[in-house]
Specification:
The complex is a heterodimer of chains A (245) and B (286). Helices cover 80% and strands 0% of the residues of chain A. Chain A contains seven helices and no strands. In chain A, helix 1 runs antiparallel to helix 2, helix 1 packs antiparallel against helix 4 and helix 5 packs antiparallel against helix 7. The longest helix of chain A is centred in the middle third of the chain and has 35 residues. With 286 residues, chain B is of the alpha/beta class. Helices cover 31% and strands 23% of the residues of chain B. Classes of the chains: A mainly alpha (245), B alpha/beta (286).
Chain lengths: 245, 286
Amino acid sequence: MAVAEAERPSVTGRHISRKYDEALEDVRTSVLEMGGLVEEQITNALAALAEFDSEIGERVVRDDYKINRLEVQIDEECTRIIALHQPAASDLRLVIAIIKTITDLERMGDEAEKIGRTAVRLGGNAPRRMRYAGVRNLGRHVQQMVHQALDAFARLDVEAAVDIAREDKTVDLEYAACMRELVTYMMEDPRRISEVLDMIWCARALERIADHAKNIGEYIVFLVKGKDIRHTSLEHKELQAQSEV
Amino acid sequence: MNTVAASAATAFVADRTDDAPRDEAYETVGEIHSPNARITVRDVTVWYGEKIGIENVNIDIGSNEVLALVGPSGCGKSTFLRCLNRMNDIIDNCRMSGTIRLDGDDIFDPKLDVVLLRARVGMVFQKPNPFPKSIYDNVAYGPRIHGLSETRADTDEIVQRSLERAGLWEEVKDRLEQPGTGLSGGQQQRLCIARAIAVSPEVILMDEPCSALDPIATARIEELIDELRQQYAIALVTHSMQQAARVSQRTAYFHLGHLVEVGETSQIFTNPRHTLTEDYITGRVG
């Protein structure tokens, strides 16, 4: 049967009720704001880790509350939209995708906070350069993924969203390689075991952030295509993203 | 497709403009077939004089399901509903082409008794319209004229059973001789439903049955519709999206005389396939 030939409507906007438009647009803006904060926290956490800079690390720990506060606020806004406007179809999917996205964003924030704490502990009063290249590279890659996920959310870019799942596979490999590297350090010099263990936790946190970014990508596909691609193979995800609605 | 302004849809008859489609075979998006179809509608077009009411509609209505018909005013959903028991016959300049079958019988067969057809396909209207008679007689009238009851005892039984099924018996059993018009709006509507089911119909058509009722009476009617679904095929016209979502299993979206999309209600409300459906469901400007 023929499928709608006209292009799909924008995510917010064009509602008969202007208040409804505004409510959806406001909550979407809040999510982007929250995403920006999370990105900043991750950047700062990695900067703190790179130099074992306790000052920056402390700032990351201190600022996590901003993300938490936004999560609660967006949740409330979504509840209000559901109660007052009874969203359906793409609007409903937008609200659901937002509720899920902010949970993942908040957890990314928590992981960044963990990294910040580690930097504070390892740095103490004397910042020094972090020497673990694997962790550094992993951090760069994950940072890129988070940026891509937020960008895909803002632009509703399904292909970019699926691309994140592909990147996540690479991050998993990099994480495994990083672990091997760190284990080697421990074997070489038992006096560094404590520090390397901290690095392992940081690598773990970064790998988790990548998983959350991947989740956000999946919500974007749900939002745009109405297809739930969680817990499916990469091939299936690609297929669904290309399919007609 | 969506070049026609939605504002034109206020007229009862879809007012067609030159760039509106005049497809010979309009293709509805979604599954028009029902596994246990009672009514099959094929290529149905209705004209009011020169104006087209609905065009090339194809759909099944199955037993044990509520089919919700939604769409802006003037989109043709009531026209469609009125085809199903030939209520359009009484409109002078109304013509129709296509076929509608009820359990295989062509309902436009000249040999078919229209009165009998309207017993098989019952109807409940927007405003409760009980006869100016007693509660008892409102329900007993149909079975009597259709010869379904011969003795007073038969009639008593049918009246009680129908009122029970309509969820009204407990409220009226002690005042069956009082006028039906003395009941509350919600009770009157349930009385009309009891009247419709008293003649053992196969299909029940409902044209905005709750639009004149308060939320509590509405909830009771919706509950009743869900129970009646076990026995009858039901087609329901509603302007309340929430009502369509709550009570129907399938939803059909009409727009300017076209049946745009049919699908499972859960699909239509979470992921409609046609842009026009999406715009309507989400309350956007078409």
